[in-house]
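Researcher: Please generate the 3D structure of the following complex. Treat every line as part of one assembly.
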Amino acid sequence: MTQVEVVTIGDELLLGFTVDTNAAHLARALAGIGMHIERRTTVGDDPAEIEHVVREALERSGAVITTGGLGPTSDDLTRQSIAGVFGRGMHLDEAHLAWMEERWRRRFDRPLPAANRQQAMIPDGAEKLENRHGSAPGIWLEDERGRWVAMLPGVPREMRGMLADTLLPRLVQRTTAGIVVRSTTLRTTGIGESALADQIDSMGGGPLGVSLAYLPSIAGVDLRLTVKDVPPAEADALLARAAARLRARVGQAMYGEDDADLAAVVLEACRTRKLTIAVAESCTGGLLGARLTAIPGSSDVVLGGVIAYANSVKRDLLGVREESLREHGAVSEPVVREMAAGARRVTGASVGLAITGVAGPSGGTPDKPVGTVWIAADVEGAVEARLHKLWGDRDEIRQRAAQWTMELLRQRLRA
Amino acid sequence: MTQVEVVTIGDELLLGFTVDTNAAHLARALAGIGMHIERRTTVGDDPAEIEHVVREALERSGAVITTGGLGPTSDDLTRQSIAGVFGRGMHLDEAHLAWMEERWRRRFDRPLPAANRQQAMIPDGAEKLENRHGSAPGIWLEDERGRWVAMLPGVPREMRGMLADTLLPRLVQRTTAGIVVRSTTLRTTGIGESALADQIDSMGGGPLGVSLAYLPSIAGVDLRLTVKDVPPAEADALLARAAARLRARVGQAMYGEDDADLAAVVLEACRTRKLTIAVAESCTGGLLGARLTAIPGSSDVVLGGVIAYANSVKRDLLGVREESLREHGAVSEPVVREMAAGARRVTGASVGLAITGVAGPSGGTPDKPVGTVWIAADVEGAVEARLHKLWGDRDEIRQRAAQWTMELLRQRLRA
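Model: Done. Output below.
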């Protein structure tokens, strides 16, 4: 199994102005070709620190991927710092400069900004990694012992494009080992980490034979099964056996595997049954609609719906009765039922999904504290409503409310 | 200025199953009390690796904060690994065990799961850091030379709570230096990084006297100004002077400072003018509504709106004319104008915001390629529409569309 270290570079990462999403993306992509990230280090835009950290990582693993610091501004110092690790100088790459000038003329109809010229400076003896999504080339530096550093841009779009187009194919060619890391993730929702752990720990039939990690998030708890250092066929068999045992034990709460998104699962269930969906959202303000329509191709299932944040909109656009609002309040079972039914009626959809709740931080009462959320699913006229007491901050409560509403529909359609 | 290193722990981070949002949050919170993260390292759930990395970080900086690995499952190994760094044993904290048992009875109405017992094991000589948001205590370990490690949970909610409630106050007490890091961020939207850099580089009046970083994201480009190692009053003066010069130069594109969210800026502008907002969303499917209602207290401005994903919903709920849809297509200026006007009309709001576009990956045509997005703002009957050619993947295009629509309203209200 091939080890690699990752160094992410940028003051913005250390100062917390940017969340490092590249690191997670890189890890998943590398795992897919049997490479494992052993350590990840983040440093600021400090040439001495970059050089020091990359040198150490290279000594430990012989294989380092960096992200960031290839941009056009004066705090982009990766190229020259890592040239220093290899004892190399820098030179202007005329071909790349010409390409950038042409690109600016063609795409932006103006001359190349002076600041971008430094993006054509590359270390002596380096190979460029093509960037189809931006102006900075990636850089591959390798020494006579075969130890290498690949420098990728920090902008997620450019990093992902270059990784897929250029770096992964190159790494696959270098990797000759028949030994891999394989993993499967079983995604659950509606059950806590400890309860899940208790159920699984009390499961008979001996050890699983794979390593098991619990990964809680707003979407639920993922169970990640991993097998290392065995040949691919054996790894697959071990994973399949362990997954089957877990599925038998906690299958009810399981909505998919690996990258599965509950929104996509629910859309596919509707597609199969030729159902269409409309939403009626109060406290989530459009989040459920946004989750569903984030899935490419959702337009054959999702018609749309109503964001009924104000009571007047619940009444005027969804037909919620004034009486229900007055007698039970906006966060109540009668209102959520009428919202779900209204979403169906006004759009002509076969399924209406509704959410009304107290997302906080204010607005809670002793009767209906922050986190009180009513959800409902009207499937072709049969309405089911549920009360949830969700925890977390405003954002978490809203996200969980959207997740539970999709889960309610999934359960209804499974029956 | 006080340096600290951060070590984030968890296979899920290295394998990319979780994005490390804790690191960014920690950085911002620590900067606020004048502490600076010099390096961040991420390791898996491997006791030897945890011990090794924490030992090195402690030797470099004398101050280390870890997140993760305090949970109830068998891959939670932080406590014992770091006890090893300090050469300490472990013991059962009876008081904490009793507290957890009581908590489970009270909150979940069931006995403490066996798996959670290990959360009451703490290193000898450690102090507990109270966790009001979960069951694992944080841990503070310090040696006779005053070098310390603070262990926080990995679950973001618990980490943030413990940091604010317990760790930050403790660190403020220890910090006696009058020397700080101060930074200000000026947030811009609608202008690219290179164009911004060119404008700023060509600005007269000598050096800014502060360090300047460009931080591009989907929301726009942030300009971060930082001053280090000077007394607080001087730092503030330097920042204020530099910020004023930048504002004079690129102020048009600037919507706020530091944590400012364009949604909050727009809501506040409406609140001042006693305007209410309704949305009409096609390709964004609720994202704009979700962005606006993510801001606490948005209910006095946002009434709601219509998610008009299908053309039938545009027609039936927003009154978009069949003729406009047929002659110009759903992604067109006439349709976006009618959507914005319709959102106002059906909800009674004073402002209607509308978005219709091709978010991709499919659905593009030579005339209207992926990224073609029409947006409109109807402010009390005066409609302004704009065509944007956005780049990125489906998610980025949708997010940018929501951002540009809020920016359009901001510009309208500033005039």
